[in-house]
Amino acid sequence: MRQEEIWDADAAQRYDTPGSGMFAPEVLEPAVERLARLAGEGAALEFAIGTGRVAVPLAGRGVPVTGIELSRPMVERLRTKADEATIPVVIGDMATTTAPGEYTLVYLVYNTISNLLTQAEQVECFRNAARHLGPGGRFVIELWVPELRKLPPGRTATVWRSEPGYIGLDTYDVLHQHVVSHHFRFDETEQARLFRSPHRYIWPAELDLMARLAGFELETRHADWNGAEFTAESDSHVSVYRLPPARAAAHGRGAP
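Below the sequence we write its predicted structure tokens.
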């Protein structure tokens, strides 16, 4: 399925879970705080802005935020929280679509770069971030670490969460670095609701190489938004990439 078919009106309606899951204060607030610091006095651009989970509170902190989003239903949901003047959004994919202006920060959260299903598209996403940033600008990616150590030989699926009313499992195609996430929600009836989304997983070292191809250098990598140390046991990371700052000579200084 194409991404615009996955993130349809029904998915947009069910996406927001105020106060819980990815909208829980302990999940959302550290991300907004870190991004506000990284944006500084400049503007921020969110790739795959969705329903505004991060953009709305970040704009509330005084950071000018613009978004790029492929799904019109997700943007319509965002519009119930913020109008176009407050958070402008350009409809399109995050690998090729451009937004007007120059930014100090581009960010892509909650594993969304993996929604691009080829390595070439993921590389183009980095290049698209670079073309929106001024010298010294930063690109921030939040991404999970592939859990292949949990995949026994001969098996193609892992259960990554099991709790009352919910089971989450991933099926892997390790040859192509593809994974499909299956989200089963159910109650006391015999009916269950399934939501599936395809991804291309990326190892941290591969992500770093994509960054270098676009002119970035890795500035920091932590296990979460609070700055916990990234280790071999971390299941996700927040990586900050930065473009080189402008050279003094480019401004006419330092010449004999």
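The longest strand covers residues 133-144.
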